[in-house]
């Protein structure tokens, strides 16, 4: 008995020494604050954070203090001493310009004004003859951002001995869009139920709300749209507003504003009116009153996000009016309170009057200049719908008089949903870095979005959230990286994906160099891999019907054409691809002449967009010398091979990752690999019916015939 107890004790000790035995469910995201005992700059860290001056007294200051306590306790095993005003012992000073008048003179007036309300400085200075660090900005909010950035430097083992960081967000509105319903289902959510426990609100504030706010603040997200774009008018009633107010109170000290989705027909559904016509004075009065009521509950309410005239949602078209007329009615109601409207450009018609890729542009472009000043038009990154890869939306660069907000989808509706590791930092970077040529070369999508191209002071980025009640928040551990990457790119749309991946890995899993190198390799090839095994060479929208899970190139004959696969791939004996040049839908004409020329010419069209813009014969000769059919097949195979090498890389870093997260990621990578084969086999067998050509060398024969795949109908897929 005694011997087995001793054995257990020794085992437990060994486990503690060897961190990988410890369970880690991923709840702490990138705020792991792992012990720093092996960090190269440990002694500098210890010196720099012993005596901290933090003069602020607000709720935000308290949060800064708590975070430092938590982080430094975990990382250094120390408990720093805090004081209100600098004394000779101070090693770290965290205060605003107003709180530190003497020190503030060191910063130029112009810099203070550039910092605005959210930018911060982290600087090494000599103070009282000592090497001191200070974190400053104009507001406590800026200090919170600066503190998180400072903790990131420690977490990623950076040298902090001579810092001179000025960080200013390039976009103003950095929001998550939750497609969460009041019944706690999440549209396109793959990580459990909605984290908003409406039934228990306003009384019960789950600890998860606080951690949600911390995580978001740590990456600069400053707003959250709590409700689904397919909106429920009830969320604007007092019953819900009390609950929304409780969340707003919780998030406020973290600098996070709440927003709601406004259902255009709410005046009818909850207001007792018989119309929602935006030009009707009673309707306007109703919204004005409603908005005033909301601000009584939530004095700093952010505003509305609206999906109108799209997929069955009501909108101004119901009254023969334009999107601007609809948006402006709400905008005017919000103006007295400094609220904004995020009006989605995802508008397309049930009747499929034209190539779906063209409809938003046709609808919105003529309205440039007609929106009120507090309206942003929120545009998805591509013209169809968050496909694995899309060329940038032609509206970017086409509406210089209107602030255009980027809408990315963080939840992976079309990218493997809850089980595929697909690092979206690469996708976001690709879109943001693309040149629209709107004002000549260099007019990147990033510059349209951050407002710098057309001098807009209002700017923003929205990310459709992948968060749910799963213990690790995002279902897949690596889904956390997509939330992280979104925040980072919203703050700075020019940041590069590789830096983001590396930072996230270090904070989330640790600083071991092999882990970081291989982890990065996995992440940075993962998006291309998914494109290869799902929709290579510009193919798009060929996934399973309705749930969008798995392959479904055979989907056809549904109640609307533009929700089928055959509409998009146009495969037949003559070839494959959607002709969007002048001989086809001419969607290409919506882009700047430089893009038209480049993408329209087969010699210069990037092959990644080839079948998005061109319909080509199966034996069309690719740059590689291969026939198109062979090239398609080889791309599918490459995607499968890439998932294999992602798996191998992950297995090789087993010793550097805790068991719990290692095992989950490993299993998901195995699922991903099997599903990549599923995609490849199903799509190749389907297209082979038209190409009538054998699979090229290197692409193994599928294990099952086509009807096996066509008859497989996944049931109860989450997120519908
Ligand atoms: C599509 C989704 C659908 C959303 C829609 C939207 O399939 O669930 O409601 O986008 O963005 O991607 O409104």
From TrEMBL:
Catalytic activity, EC: 3.2.1.131
Gene3D superfamilies assigned: Alpha-glucuronidase, C-terminal domain (3.90.1330.10), Chitobiase/beta-hexosaminidase domain 2-like (3.30.379.10), Glycosidases (3.20.20.80)
Stretches assigned to coiled coil: none
Domain called Glycosyl hydrolase family 67 catalytic: residue spans: 154-473
Leader sequence segment: 1-23
Gene Ontology terms describing biological process: glucuronoxylan catabolic process
Protein name according to UniProt: Xylan alpha-1,2-glucuronidase
């Amino acid at each position: 008995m005694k011997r087995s107890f001793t054995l257990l004790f020794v085992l437990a000790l060994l486990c503690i020494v060897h961190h990988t035995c410890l369970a880690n469910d991923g709840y702490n995201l990138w705020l792991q604050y792992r012990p720093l005992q092996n960090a190269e700059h440990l002694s500098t860290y210890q010196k720099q954070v012993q005596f901290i001056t933090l003069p602020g007294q607000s709720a935000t200051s308290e949060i800064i203090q708590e975070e430092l306590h938590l982080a430094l306790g975990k990382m250094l095993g120390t408990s720093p001493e805090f004081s209100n005003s600098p004394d000779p012992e101070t090693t770290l000073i965290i205060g605003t310009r107003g709180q530190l008048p003497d020190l503030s003179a060191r910063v130029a007036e112009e810099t203070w004004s550039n910092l605005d309300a959210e930018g911060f400085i982290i600087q090494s200075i000599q103070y009282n003859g000592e090497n001191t660090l200070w974190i400053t900005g104009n507001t406590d909010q800026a200090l919170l951002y600066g503190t998180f950035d400072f903790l990131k430097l420690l977490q990623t083992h950076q040298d902090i001995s001579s810092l001179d960081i000025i960080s200013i967000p390039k976009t103003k509105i950095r929001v998550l869009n939750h497609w969460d319903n009041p019944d706690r289902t999440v549209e396109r959510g793959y990580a459990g139920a909605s984290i908003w426990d409406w039934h228990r609100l306003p009384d019960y504030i789950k600890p998860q709300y606080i951690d949600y706010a911390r995580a978001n603040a740590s990456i600069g997200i400053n707003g959250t749209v709590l409700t689904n774009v397919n909106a429920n008018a009830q969320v604007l009633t007092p019953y819900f507003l009390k609950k929304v107010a409780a969340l707003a109170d919780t998030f406020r000290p973290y600098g996070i504003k709440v927003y709601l989705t406004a259902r255009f027909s709410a005046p009818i559904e909850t207001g007792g009116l018989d119309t929602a016509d935006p030009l009707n004075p009673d309707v306007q009065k109703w919204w004005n009153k409603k908005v005033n009521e909301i601000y009584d509950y939530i004095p700093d309410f952010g505003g509305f996000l609206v999906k109108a005239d799209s997929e069955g949602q009501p909108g101004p078209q119901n009254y023969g009016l334009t999107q601007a007329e609809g948006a402006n009615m709400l905008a005017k109601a919000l103006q007295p309170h400094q609220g904004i409207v995020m009006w989605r450009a995802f508008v397309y018609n049930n009747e499929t009057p034209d190539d779906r890729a063209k409809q938003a542009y046709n609808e919105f472009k003529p309205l440039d200049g007609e929106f009120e000043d507090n309206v942003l038009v929120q545009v998805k990154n591509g013209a169809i719908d968050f496909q694995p890869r899309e060329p940038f939306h032609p509206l970017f660069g086409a509406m210089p008089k209107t602030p255009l907000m980027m809408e990315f989808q963080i939840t992976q509706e079309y990218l493997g949903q809850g089980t595929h590791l697909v690092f979206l930092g690469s996708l976001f970077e690709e879109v943001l870095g693309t040149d629209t040529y709107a004002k000549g070369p260099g007019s990147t999508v990033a510059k349209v979005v951050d407002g710098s191209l057309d001098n807009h002071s209002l700017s923003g980025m929205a990310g459709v959230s992948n968060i749910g009640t799963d213990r690790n928040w995002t279902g897949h551990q690596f889904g956390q990286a997509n939330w992280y990457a979104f925040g980072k790119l919203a703050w700075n749309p020019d940041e590069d994906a590789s830096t983001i991946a590396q930072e996230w890995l270090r904070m989330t899993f640790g600083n071991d160099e092999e882990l970081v190198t291989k982890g990065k390799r996995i992440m940075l090839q993962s998006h291309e891999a998914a494109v290869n095994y799902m929709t290579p060479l510009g193919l798009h929208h060929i996934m399973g019907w309705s749930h969008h899970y798995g392959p479904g190139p055979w989907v056809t004959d549904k109640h609307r054409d533009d929700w089928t696969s055959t509409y998009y791939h146009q495969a037949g004996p003559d070839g494959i691809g959607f002709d969007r040049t002048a001989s086809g839908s001419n969607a290409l004409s919506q882009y700047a002449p430089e893009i038209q020329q480049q993408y329209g010419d087969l010699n210069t069209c990037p092959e990644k967009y080839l079948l998005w813009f061109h319909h080509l014969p199966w034996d069309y000769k690719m740059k590689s010398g291969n026939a198109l059919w062979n090239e398609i097949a080889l791309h599918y195979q490459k995607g499968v091979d890439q998932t294999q090498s992602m798996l191998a890389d992950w297995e090789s870093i087993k010793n550097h990752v805790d068991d719990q997260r290692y095992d989950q990621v490993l299993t998901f990578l195995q699922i991903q690999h099997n599903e990549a084969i599923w995609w490849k086999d199903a799509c190749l067998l389907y297209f082979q019916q038209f190409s009538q050509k054998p699979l090229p060398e290197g692409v193994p024969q599928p294990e099952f015939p086509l009807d096996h795949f066509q008859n497989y109908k996944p049931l109860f897929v989450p997120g519908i």
